[in-house]
Amino acid sequence: MTRKIKYTSALLVSSAFLTAALMSSPVRAASDQDELRQRVATMEQMLGDLKQRLEKSESIAKDAQQKAVKAENKAIVAEKLANADENASVNWHFSGYATANYKQTDQTDTVSSFGSGKFNPLFLVGYKDLLTFQGELELSTNSDASTKVSLEYATLDLMATDYATISMGKFLSPIGAFQSRLHPAWINKMPDRPAGFVEDGGAEPLSEIGASVHGGVELGSMLASYNFFVGNGPRLSDEGINMEGFGSDVNGNKAFGGRLGLRPVPYFEIGISGMHSRMNGVRPTSGTDVTDANFNLIDVDAAFTKGPWDIRGEFISSKLGKMTSAFDSGDTSATSIPEMSWQAWYTQAAYRLSGLTDHAILGNFEPVVRYGHFSVSGDVPDWKTLEEDRVSVGLNYWFAPSVVMKASYSDRDFKNQADANEFNVQFAYGF
């Protein structure tokens, strides 16, 4: 029961009792009746005033409550708008690529087989025009049916100026052009990589963990690009120089390097790269102490991409000084390793037949030719078994701008083992 109803009921009951008491007395004079009527009228007036005051108080309270609800709703809307503005500053993109392979070969101790299908998801998240994160994973199947997951790269990139971006993390090596430009399988014109530019290590650096600064500037009508880095550096192994990015530095001597590129016209670019590092020998389980040595690398690349033409080439040369080292961490003793050098180069040309015909099918074919060379200098037989000259011819069919079926034949002329003929097929999709 509300306060208004309680007060009203009390006044009505009191008035009724008073009226009854006065009317019950038979000796009351007429003047008393007039007085009674006057009192009742006064009480009714008071009751009316009280009702008005109660109604006014309730109205004020109701208005206050409505204003409070409106204020709360406005606060909720303002918070949602603020969150929406913040979320709008964060942009993300998911892409990647996938491949499936088949290889037939007569190489010694190698059998023809379907290769592991690979799935490479790429993630890109940006905050305003200030910061981006980019990363790539690779999922593949091992020979024992287990799944292998590896981190290709993952960096945080700060856009310092219009001409400079600072990156930290694991990044694809900026040395040369193949690893940084043709890393996604669907962009590479062949099902395989050139001699010496292999995924499991060769003459080419694959990745680095460290920091870099990169960007581009206009030089008149030309465009110049740069990428300088410092990182943990490569390591020595029984397969040569392992230039995959390592999560720790074994000697505290950082690797320094970078690439300078010049694009005199929009369809032609030439670049020069270099890297310097100092490597420790691998310590054996016992015996001779190890020494360290300088490791230096230089690379020159060029590319012509105009219309249906894609012509490119790259030359890389590296040298390791003389050192005392075990070949592998499990070796029981160290040996004197002479000065070593590696050289690899390739040249390749591809032509899309759409430059000759408008035919809906013929125009999607793309013939490719490539010649590659890889050599090792130094008296280390295990490393010299990889030397080869390779001639490859291929034919691609593009179902869509990022969907391609590739087939190639390679004549592999090894210097220190039996030659091999190889046939590769790859289905690749970039999304």
Strand order, largest beta sheet:
1-3-4-5-6-7-8-11-12-13-14-17-18-19-20-21
Strand content: over 45%
As for the number of domains, it is 2
Q: Which fold does the CATH topology of the largest domain refer to? A: Porin
What's the helical proportion of residues?
Answer: 10-25%
Oligomer: single chain
In CATH, the architecture of the largest domain is Beta Barrel
Query: How many helical elements?
Result: 4
Q: What is the radius of gyration computed over CA atoms, rounded to a whole number of angstroms?
A: 41 Å
Inertia-based shape: elongated
Mean pLDDT: 86
CATH class of the largest domain: Mainly Beta
Category from helices, strands and their pairing? alpha+beta
CATH homologous group name of the largest domain: Porin
The largest pleated sheet is described as: 16 strands, antiparallel, barrel
Q: Helix-strand pattern, N to C?
A: HHEEEEEEHEEEEEEEEEEEEHEEE
How would the blueprint of this fold be written?
Elements: H1 3-23, H2 30-88, E1 90-105, E2 113-114, E3 118-127, E4 131-141, E5 147-161, E6 164-172, H3 178-181, E7 207-219, E8 222-231, E9 235-237, E10 240-242, E11 255-265, E12 268-280, E13 292-306, E14 309-320, E15 323-325, E16 335-337, E17 340-351, E18 365-377, H4 381-384, E19 388-400, E20 403-414, E21 420-430
Antiparallel strand pairs: 1-2, 1-3, 1-21, 3-4, 4-5, 5-6, 6-7, 7-8, 8-11, 9-10, 11-12, 12-13, 13-14, 14-17, 15-16, 17-18, 18-19, 19-20, 20-21
Helix pairs in contact: 1-2
